[in-house]
């Protein structure tokens, strides 16, 4: 998981190097400066990753890590046959699509608002970041209390407003639990989206808007024809970051609902096998699967993004 | 200074350092964190430190017992000496034995002999005593005496009576304007606690203990199905839907704040319900869990915790001493008086102070003695998986996603598959 992110960083670095056309010497020095970081990354991210992938083909057990045998694809076969695993995959995908979509839309709206010349917008920008600054464990536990069916404030408000007939069991009802998790994630991570989109917005030259204004272009058209195409690279990066993060979501659903099948994600499933069941081989297979999914997704997204960007320029 | 003198000084310094280290060891102890356990255990450990001149470091651990186990397994499999004394659940000895000190060798026989033989037996793995009992547990039924009296209801002896009584009180109270009241709360979250609850339902109906003594899976039977069916009928009727995400403390929260008529919980909830800040103080009664119908039986899942010593501890001597201290009659009496934990020493069940504070102990002694054990011995290292598939199936039945019959049949298949994998 970590390595994917690192690779995208490296790709970015490589592209930057090309673009700025460093001389050969400067390039060599760049490598020398980067080398310590690469070594550290290989040690803390590369090695564990390789080891996890290797264990996925063994029957290793946490109780005795000295004694294991290679079992080939057996773990993956069992994984494919496990209905609980596929429930977790489906939960993860649903969570990712829902949360990233909502966060992108909300983030764009809030960023556009913050980009306008409002009085006190510096303060507003700082305030918007608060949910993101709170550690997930803390905010998840906070929401857990707000979600409580008997004394939770959410039910209290909803009942007072007459929106629901009886108190809802947010985290206990299997049909609601995933929605509850998505809601908390949206609350927590929209600020992150906002920040990245705001950064992209500020790169758009003001002259273009002035020109559009002179020509009397409708504001909506300005958004679709000027703003959106120009912030697309930044938006893409934000969406990729969020998607990668969402695909490996663990803390939020785990704190809200534990190992419940209704919200179990791929990472929760892998952890349960690895840690609770001590099945290092099988759990590693699940982790590897998760890694491959994220890897495929990243490559697909970057490739598609390039094609689309290229088409836009042509 | 002559060479001899110099050597003598060096030896003295070295010896002093060694002795000093042996005398003032820092022992880390992992206490539980449910209810008032943490503070209680911290006081005990600090009293020991003061008495012996050692230092203690109290480590706080997750509330959920599954998470605690996961933490210990991770630490122990890395041979970490981070925690010297740890508290283990009655179902863990089989899982952790190889990483724990054999206390049978380190502790005098008469100390071990004080405890209930059955609990010592449960802590013995392949002749190795891996834990000294701290307290024993069994699920018991808490009820609101005042509310049952108000609506002329008897203390229920069967689950069917409980369902009926809960309905009557709940309806009456709601009419009287108490809209938040519910009939029955228990531990319905998908975790080990649900296994305990569901095992009690099934066993009280005479539906077996998931896996029989011969190791054969026995959960898909008519009595077990009837038990789970009855339990599933409670949700949204006498139990809030939120109970599907309740562990011990959430259930206690509902009951102690006066929002439930009945509660299934462990004995620790008694002392807290009688605390000065408890809204239900003096209104609570305790009894054995109901039978599953007139020909069923009273039962309770055997719980309880033990003090164990990490095999990789750097202060084994001091750690064993602390474990022995924490499991001693004096500490168990203090636990019974202050936080209503059941002693594991028969003599303490005759103790006047304890009986005065926990009047239910004498009446419930037969329940504690006859508590039903979870099938951890039969399943060994695979217990977690068996329990996980069982609680998931029960959780699905309770939440109405599957019929009890289907889900219990599914458990049988999963356990059989696990057994085949283990045999491989």
Describe the structure in brief:
With 314 residues, chain A is mostly helical.
N-C termini distance of chain B = 71 Å
How can the largest sheet of chain B be summarized?
5 strands, mixed
- Interface with most residues: A-B, 28 and 37 residues
| CATH evolutionary superfamily of the largest domain in chain B | Periplasmic binding protein-like II
What's the number of structural domains of chain B? 2
Helix/strand/pairing category of chain B: alpha/beta
Structural class of chain A: mainly alpha
Shape of chain A: flat
What is the number of beta strands of chain B? 13
Helix fraction bin of chain B: 40-55%
CATH architecture of the largest domain in chain A: Orthogonal Bundle
Q: What is the CATH homologous superfamily assignment of the largest domain in chain A? A: MetI-like
Number of strands of chain A: 0
β-strand percent of chain B reads: 5-15%
Q: Looking across the biggest beta sheet of chain B, what order are the strands in?
A: 2-1-3-13-6
